[in-house]
Amino acid sequence: MSQRHPMVAGNWKMHGSRAANLALVEGVLAGTVPGAEVVLCPPFVYLADLAPRLAGGAVQLGAQDVCAEPHHGAYTGEVSADMLRDVGCRYVIVGHSERRALYGETDAIVARKVLTALAAGLQPIICVGEQLEDRDAGRTEAVVSEQLEAVLSALADSANGLTALDQCVLAYEPVWAIGTGRTASPEQAQQVHAFIRGRIANRDATISESVRVLYGGSVKPGNARELFGMADVDGGLIGGASLKADEFVAIIAAAVAR
């Protein structure tokens, strides 16, 4: 089994209220067992509320997105990487499938966001994954490769080179298996995770073995342990189940037991 430290990150998406968030955080803190890195990513407006409760504890704070622009300025509605660091974030999700599909984020924009996050001292959780039509057309590897290579090329051309990938986490999202009634098997997840690791190995085999690759396809307590038991699955990026403390804690326990 891999020596990579497992991670479970909760993406709350556009859910929550002050009261509900605090109750959820307390439930997660009370039930989390040591052995996995845990990250919670609430909406922007709640980050400052939750930062003091999570500061210095076992659960890290993350954001769901970041502006690609590296400097402050006239970008109405955007939130900069420096602002996220200022309120206590350590991680930020970049290139989530919903950002790509609903808001038109291109591979180039995602790559810029990765560089901007890293420059501010944030660790990006970089999402890649194919839509249903891509899976049905047999284009899974082509789509994932294109998304991944945009980031790898940007990192390779940056000041720190590909070694900056050590500060990143990858997440594979099979969009066709999220809310469609179709389920990705652990073997299907492993196949793509191994492909992702292989693409990185083409550039640097050492970094390929150390970078964590999370699975983000409707992970639940009932399937988490089997998914996390796959050789190249290093934890999960959790959506709906991260909104229920008992389910999220059970997924964390599955990651610890892998």
Could you explain how this protein is built, in words?
It is a single chain. Helices cover about 45% and strands about 15% of the residues. It has about 260 residues and is an alpha/beta fold.
Task: Record the SSE blueprint.
Layout: E1 7-11, H1 18-31, E2 37-41, H2 47-54, E3 59-63, H3 81-86, E4 91-94, H4 97-103, H5 107-119, E5 123-128, H6 132-136, H7 140-156, E6 169-172, H8 186-201, H9 205-210, E7 212-215, H10 221-228, E8 235-238, H11 245-256
Parallel strand pairs: 1-2, 1-8, 2-3, 3-4, 4-5, 5-6, 6-7
Q: In a few lines, what is going on in this structure?
A:
The protein has 258 residues and is α/β, with parallel strands linked by helices.
CATH architectural name of the domain at 58-213: Alpha-Beta Barrel
Q: Helix proportion of residues, in percent?
A: 40-55%
* CATH homologous superfamily caption of the domain at 58-213: Aldolase class I
Number of strands: 8
Q: What is the CATH topology classification name of the domain at 58-213?
A: TIM Barrel
Radius of gyration: 17 Å
Mean pLDDT: 96
Strand fraction: 5-15%
Distance between the termini: 8 Å
What CATH first level of the domain at 58-213 would be assigned? Alpha Beta
What shape does the CA trace take?
globular
Sheet with the most strands: spatial strand order: 7-6-5-4-3-2-1-8
| Residue runs with pLDDT of under 50 for 5 or more positions | none
Helix and strand run: EHEHEHEHHEHHEHHEHEH
- The total count of helices amounts to 11
